[in-house]
Amino acid sequence: MAGIDDVARAAGVSTATVSRALSGRGPVSTATRDRVLAAADRLGYVVSAAASSLASGRARAVGVVVPFLDRWFFSTVLAGISDALVREGYDITLYSVSADPAERRRVFDDHLRRRRIDAVITIAIEMDATESALLRTLGVPVVSIGGPNPLLTTLTVDDRAVGRLATEHLIALGHRRVTHIGADTTTDAASSVPALRRRGFVETMDAIGAAPVFEPADFTIEGGSAAATRTLSGDAPPIIGVDGHELGRWFGLTTVDQFARGQGERAAEAALAELDGADPAPGLGTLPFELVDRGSTGPVDAARR
Amino acid sequence: MAGIDDVARAAGVSTATVSRALSGRGPVSTATRDRVLAAADRLGYVVSAAASSLASGRARAVGVVVPFLDRWFFSTVLAGISDALVREGYDITLYSVSADPAERRRVFDDHLRRRRIDAVITIAIEMDATESALLRTLGVPVVSIGGPNPLLTTLTVDDRAVGRLATEHLIALGHRRVTHIGADTTTDAASSVPALRRRGFVETMDAIGAAPVFEPADFTIEGGSAAATRTLSGDAPPIIGVDGHELGRWFGLTTVDQFARGQGERAAEAALAELDGADPAPGLGTLPFELVDRGSTGPVDAARR
DNA sequence: CTGTTAGCGCCTTCAG
DNA sequence: CTGAAGGCGCTAACAG
């Protein structure tokens, strides 16, 4: 494989000039630049990531940390990140952290600290203070999609408002008996996504003096469906979901879409902006969401009320 | 961030010894090793990927090339790869190549050639001879999940046999009028996954002298569902799918499962084996598949025959 | 078993 | 605008 001095020789310039011409950093006359580019192209020269990174301190890669790869939301956000990053010539290094604490430590204490990445994006990773601080010590921009974190630049959906929006939609249709199917929040932090959604639900129910009902379920198809079966009588009551899953459209499920792919793009852009010198914006950026009425919810009918 | 000579100083040894103790390559007495490990731990030392990679030629990362991130099959295979790789301390670098030829070239000609990865795994990427050759010139193990490729180590599902298996299942139940819903293979290579499945279908139908019927559809929910709607009369005929999608279970869809996650694990293990010096096995390894009867198919009934 | 010594391939001052 | 030269942080012979 051709190295930088092959190119330098072929173009009749020094390696310094090749480096400048190819990276665009530092002055090079148009004529020389063209010669260098032509030579590099002819030789099929591609800069070595390791050498370039070691010498420059820039890795041209962004780390993405996810709790799951094979769940719709995460892979969709990841696709958005990938889109935005590839455009700018960055590679993506993937860190999947499972529930296993030992593995999690290895990712935070070892993998992420190998100086392989210029920035980090975390997706729905709930971190304690130690972990957040550790990310900070990486000395690179960190953008987190998920619960607000005062230590990091954060992109957050107002999950409480999401919970309210979904509930209000049903209330507006005349419903009063509304059941919340969601994570059993007794084990979650009060600031977790499920807890906040639930809180929005409760607030809205309280506001109209209706009694909130809960049916615990995990974030799986089986869990959700089992809970729905337990709750719902046979007469197909209105259902509203939260997320914008592609299948929601297919089922005609009314939902609060939160534009997963767009979240990824925004996170990537925020990370790139900080890399370009933009001020880090610790605290929260706000992510859009929107009620999408696809027909699974309708006005209450006399028979059921 | 602590460097290797901080550790060397703290442990009272040379950097060479630190390197040896930490990497496990080369002899180190147990006593010194312990001292080094303790010092490294105390200082929170993590080797710089760039420096180590430059000096050793090993990057401790594997590249994974996928056509889509946000489709069930690919993210599931990816999860399998991730599992197997993280265990061994490897990072994953992700390359998503869309249909855009310019972007595809950039991935093959630039990103993949940055010497950032010790091995490449491709998932369902159909490559022409140029691209395959290019991967070969990387000088690293390449494992491809997908159509057999004589130039690369390949893990392949016998898609023709899958087509036959699914069709035979229906035939065995007494059905004779069977419609194939799948990609319009006039545009695909004869060796593509959809073409092979279809061929298996045709062969089986031919064998019993039944007329194969086709309904074109792309690999999307909408496409498949539209095709099914066009074909199927209202009386809920038997349906069989191919893939093992998690939702198949939920729908009670009989399917030919191909264990996506396991495919990823096997690919990762094959790549690691080659990295450990195992002979590359150009040509094909064979991937398992299995009929899973979940009830969406049943014997033909008199009324419909 | 351990230390010394060259680089790995590129970037980036510093001169010119 | 361009070239020379010294590292970036680590590894891999090679001695000892």
Structure keywords:
homodimer; 12 helices; Rossmann fold; three-stranded mixed β-sheet; six-stranded parallel β-sheet; alpha/beta; DNA-binding; 434 Repressor (Amino-terminal Domain); 3 domains; 305 residues
**Through-space gap between termini of chain A:** 75 Å
Q: How many domains in all of chain A? A: 3
Mean pLDDT of chain A: 88
Give the low-confidence spans of chain A: none
Multimeric organization: homodimer
Task: Describe the overall structure.
Two copies of one chain form a homodimer. The relative contact order of chain A is 0.12. In chain A, 44% of the residues lie in helices and 16% in strands. Chain A folds into three domains: 4-56, 434 Repressor (Amino-terminal Domain), CATH 1.10.260; 61-153 and 263-280, Response regulator (Rossmann fold); 159-259 and 291-304, Rossmann fold (3-Layer(aba) Sandwich). By secondary structure, chain A is of the alpha/beta class. Chain A has helices at residues 4-11, 15-23, 30-43, 49-56, 72-87, 101-109, 129-137, 159-172, 193-207, 221-231, 246-251, 260-275, and strands spanning 61-66, 91-96, 119-123, 142-145, 153-157, 179-182, 213-216, 240-243, 254-257, 283-287, 290-292. Chain A binds a DNA duplex (16 and 16 nucleotides) through helix 2 and helix 4.
